[in-house]
Each structure stands twice: as C-alpha cells, then as structure tokens.
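Title: Request for sanity check on Bifunctional ligase/repressor BirA prediction

Description:
We are preparing a figure and want to confirm that the structure record we downloaded matches what your pipeline produces today. Could someone re-run it with the sequence below and paste the raw structure tokens into this thread? We only need the token string, no images.
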Amino acid sequence: MKNTIQIIHQLASQNFVSGEAMASHFHVTRATISTWVRELQGYGLDIHKVRGKGYRLAEPIDLLDKNRILSAMNASTRAGFGVVDISLETGSTNETALTAHYTDQRWHLYSTEFQSTGRGRRGRQWVSPLASSLMFTLSSKRQWSLDLLYLASVLVGLSVAQYLNYKLNKKVQLKWPNDLYVDGQKLGGILCELRGSPQDEALLVIGVGLNVYRAPQGTDREATCLFAQDEPCLDRSSLLAGLCERITQDLSHATEVGVSTQLERWDELDFLKNKTINVHQGEQIISGIAMGIDEKGQLKLRDTNGQVRTFNGGEVSVRW
C-alpha cells in the first residue's frame, strides 16, 4: 500500500496524468502503475482512465495538509505541540505515539490517510476508507492527575461531541464508554492508552477515529459519517486542527480545576440514557435500564431486580 498511495498526489490535481509520466516519476513500469491504480480503486477511490490521456480522480480528494492544520490553530495551541506528523500510511497512529521519543510535555499529533492495523476498544480492528475519515492520535508525557487518566476516554468524548455539535450544528451523542453516535448510527470512537506509572510521568495516548466523508462498510453496527447528507463546510485539515485545539484545551482545564464540571455535561449527550441494555461481563449478561455514569465514569445500570449497579469500561461490553 505504501507505494500505491503515493500516486494519489499525482492524481489529485484533477488533470489527467499519463501512466508513462507516473512510471517515470516513480521509476517503475507502466504495468506497475496500472496495478497501483487498480489497488486504489479497490480501496474505494473512483479513478477515470482515458486512452491517450491517462488517469485522474473522478472527484477531488481532500488530503490532510500539515501547514493548513498548523495555520488553523491559534498561536498558543500551536506552541503546545512539539510534533505534528501527517503520513499517507501507517500501521496505527496509537502505536506510533506509544513508541515515539518524548523530550518535554508538549503534545504530539500523529494522523494518517490510511491505517493498516488500526485498533479499537477491546482489540477490535478499526478500518476506514482511504482519505475519507480522520484517524489521529494525541499524546503527551507528563504528570497527570489520577482522575483525568481514569476518565480520559469520557473527557475526550465530551470534547469531540461538543465541538462537532457547536461547529457543525450536529447532534452527536456519546455511547458509553467511548463511541460517538448520530441518529442511532456510529460516527466514530476513541481509544485511550497509558504507559508508565501514574505516580510518575505517564504517557497518555488518545486515539480518535471519525468518519467524515464516508462510512465503513461491514461493521457490527450501522455506521454514518459527518457529511452523509450535507455539503462539507470544513476541510479535514481545519476539522482536525479544531478538534486538537478543543481536546487539549479541555484537558488542560480539567487538570487545573478538576474533572467534575466536564462530567456534568455527559447527561445531555448520553446515547444510552433510559434505554434497556444488556451488559456482557465475561459469560454473564446483566439486563436493565441505563442510568448514566457516576463520578468515576462508570456505567450505572438499574437491573431487573431494581438494584443500581456500576460497571467499568475495560471489563464489559454493552448491547441494546
């Protein structure tokens, strides 16, 4: 895929590019270019081929641009980033962040057009159509409060949902513990990971996947995307910059004043609230009514016996 995806830049101008010109540029044969084009088509890109002219994308493609991302951030946010790494392809942005070298507390941002081994919660694979979503990781190594580390997925979910609802006039809801939903369909998800001791400097890694222009097919739940019916009002680079700004600012605020204020906002965005759900805990299934979350970010459930029980996100999965 690494070589294949590079020709997107050649095709993105909307002008026809000959197979011979691309073959010369990449020092390969025209047959190899033809193979790469078919592979891109297999990943969902619509590429026109005209004899005597060459190839071009049927529709414009919105590739992430590092300079646009940085210029869309305000100066203070921009200064808080030590690394901004935008790649065409990677295995997993979370894995890149986990293995990176950190010299100070500034944030690292890793984003990509295609993930070959993206991960979701409980080891599930996260797959998204090429150049149609946002897949990014924010990471920072510093002394974090225990409350923030424990509630990271919840806090980041709140930041993302509130930003999208305000900026794009959406009605994004949060499905405990870390999924984003619109109109009953999955829009994205969050995966937070921790390395090191919370008593010392710990590395917090925040992975976010968001369907922007297209929704993945063949998922266990029906999926949607931000611009399923609306004309895009933001390019992906500006959207990524805005999300990074909101997440890092909200986490900074939570560090200064505590997490309780942000948690109070969960109730109005709670996708599961008052729904009848099944909580799967190993071989056991507990049924009941979802009643929001507690101060630790745990799911509250009123079971069939009327007892209110709490569940940790790392231990269970929820069906409804």
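Thanks, this matches our download. The chain has three domains: 2-57, 66-267, 272-319.
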